[in-house]
């Protein structure tokens, strides 16, 4: 949810930056400021939950900290590797756009990629929600249920967009 929330805020502030950036501040500074403000708003929204009296989460000292850190590191390494690779790819792609097409093309490309990421988040969330249902029917060898699940998945995905 945090990723989706952050993407919505980033799109909103990048739109404001593009619309008012040249009049208020330089465009690159405005885009950076918009991204920072979007992240700060996400942080504050989450922080408000932890400040409220209804919060039942408390910090405790974990047992076997290094063992748990090792397990988390091993589990999350593939995601970390993909994120780093995507970051490097984005930098290289942006450099090529600047080299061959200029800053106007890069200014158009940024919001398009953010919208694309938003659509991907919707698809992933619907897919993750349907995964247990599909797995259960597959394990029970209910072939007709697969078709119903696929139809429901497509319907939910189109509604998510």
Question: How does this model look, in words?
Answer:
The chain has 161 residues and is mainly alpha-helical. It is built from five helices and no strands. It has helices spanning 2-24, 27-51, 65-100, 103-139, 143-160. The radius of gyration is 21 Å and the shape is extended.
Rounded radius of gyration (Å): 21 Å
Structural class: mainly alpha
What proportion strand? under 5%
Please report the number of helical segments. Answer: 5
List keywords for this structure.
161 residues; mainly alpha; 5 helices; 86% helix; 0% strand; extended
Give a quick rundown of the structure.
The chain has 161 residues and is mainly α.
Outline the fold blueprint.
Blueprint: H1 2-24, H2 27-51, H3 65-100, H4 103-139, H5 143-160
Helix pairs in contact: 1-2, 1-4, 4-5
């Amino acid at each position: 949810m945090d990723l989706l929330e952050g993407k919505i805020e980033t799109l909103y502030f990048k739109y404001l930056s593009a619309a008012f950036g040249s009049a208020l501040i330089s465009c690159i500074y405005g885009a950076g400021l918009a991204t920072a403000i979007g992240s700060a708003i996400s942080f504050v929204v989450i922080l408000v939950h932890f400040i409220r009296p209804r919060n039942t989460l408390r910090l405790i000292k974990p047992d076997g900290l290094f063992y748990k850190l090792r397990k988390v590191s091993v589990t999350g390494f593939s995601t970390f590797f993909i994120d780093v690779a995507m970051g490097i790819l984005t930098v290289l792609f942006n450099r090529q756009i600047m080299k061959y097409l200029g800053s106007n093309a890069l200014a158009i490309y940024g919001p398009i990629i953010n919208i694309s990421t938003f659509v991907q988040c919707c698809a992933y969330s619907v897919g993750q929600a349907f995964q247990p249902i599909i797995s259960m029917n597959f394990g029970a060898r209910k072939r007709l249920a697969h078709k119903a699940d696929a139809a429901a998945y497509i319907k939910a995905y189109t509604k998510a967009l």
